[in-house]
Amino acid sequence: MISFNTLARIAKLVALLGFFLPWVLVSCSGNEIAHGSGVDMMTGHLQPNPQLAQMQAQGGGDSASTDHMSKGAPEIFVILAFALIVAGLLGSLLLRGRAASALIVATSVLAIGSAFYGFEHMHAAMIESANRGAEHASNGGDQQAAEMSASVGNAVAGAIRIEKQDGFWVTIGALAAAAVLALIALAMPASAPPEAQLRFGIAAQ
């Protein structure tokens, strides 16, 4: 019979696979700017909306702002979440019993927190980028132009939305499942074999 720790490891593998699914959708005033997977967030290269770029080109607009928002810095907290999952998975293969269970729980909980914070950090970085662009545009102009640029920058910053997509929730759900399974393993008698652990868990339900 398979043990709870083994099931938790499988859940962690599912969490890693979630990074290759859609994680984020960036929009401004209801218009999609870019989207990407967890891997895209880690590399800092989101996929820009091709329709928006085409509309800007047809209208004679500059697509630099769209490219800038889709090609930001690598999201360090998403990288940390990925690293924690890998470390927990590999560490649990080296450890046994309660030590493996405790490592799975700790890394899963920390990875969940890091993934959620990664979105907050990304949102703050985009707002700062929009404000910085407005300040740059106002340099060398008169006060009225500077105030107008600042107003536009604030409007853009307030309209930016970052939405979590299915891949993100797959990762979070798998990490939560891994943590619960490892907690059940921690609750098992230390001397109980995997078969007895699984029967105990079923009986407890």
In short:
The protein is built from nine helices and four strands. With 205 residues, the chain is of the alpha+beta class. The chain has a four-stranded antiparallel β-sheet with strand order 3-2-1-4.
Structure write-up:
The chain has one domain. It has 205 residues and is α+β, with helices and mostly antiparallel strands. Strands 3-2-1-4 form a 4-stranded antiparallel beta sheet. The chain starts with a helix and ends with a helix. The chain contains 9 helices and 4 strands, in the order H-E-E-H-E-H-H-H-H-H-E-H-H. The longest helix has 42 residues.
Any descriptors?
205 residues; alpha+beta; four-stranded antiparallel β-sheet; 72% helix; elongated
